[in-house]
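Below is how a single chain appears once it has passed through the pipeline. First comes the sequence as given, then the structure the pipeline wrote out for it. We keep one example in the README because the format questions we get most often are answered faster by looking than by reading.
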Amino acid sequence: MKTLVIGDVSIDTVIHLSQSITAQTTHFADTVKRRVGGSAAGKALNLDYLGHDVTLVSTIANDDAGQMIRAFFQNTSVTPHWIPPNHPQDVTVQHTNLLAPHDDRISIFTTPGLTPHKALPSDVILLIKETDVLFLELSGAFEPWVSAIEHPNIWVDLHDYDGENPFMLPYINKAHSLTLSGAHMSKHTQDWLGRKLVKSARTVVMTHAEKGVTWYDGKDCQTFLPAQVVVPIDSDGAGDGFATALWHFQQEFSLPDAIKKAMEIAKDVVLSDQLMPKKKPLTERL
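Resulting structure:
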């Protein structure tokens, strides 16, 4: 199926720590790696892993980070559609992830935000019309496009949305399916936010890390536990793998089976040092 992802791609510096992150403490890195990152990249790579025709719309500058991203995607099956920066001083998004045991994480953007693109370009409108599903990622650069986007199947990942940030509202109002993390919320807040969001979207899926996921559809609320809890190698991309796999498996399986299979993909992502599961021969794929 034809799939489209719109959002930011970045160069990430990923630092693994052996101790939990605490304030005013000196840490020594176990490993440091620089790689392509960003939720749009994670969604695109996982859709490619699942065997779909993927187009990725993003903005990168003609700097070292941008050249690294271009070179990376030339070695994938993803079709990139690069939008030139809106301002000559814009630079490619870069950020640093500090990853510690128990999924502790600090994410630091180390470049200024990209200048927003105003009008939705005609070539992107055509891509939207031709796609079966649109994964619309949170992005300061593309947020002005959101109100003009029309498609019957838009998936939005709200990440750590707490129910308050007004930046998310245009995305929430446009989405047909929402995913977000409730791992750091109380049970009461999780339930309040899930039931609030499902008034806007057809479905809401809230992930709880190793504690599974909860599905809201306006009539029902179901929690699904993972078949196996693993110690992650790298949790980057797990949410992207879950969201794309959930959409993928819903085309063929019942909801419980689709969620279970999507959780398996998320598990494979955290056991990989990449944004998607390690590649397998096509005959061995799902």
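Residues 281-286 have pLDDT under 50 and may be disordered.

See the next section for the split statistics.
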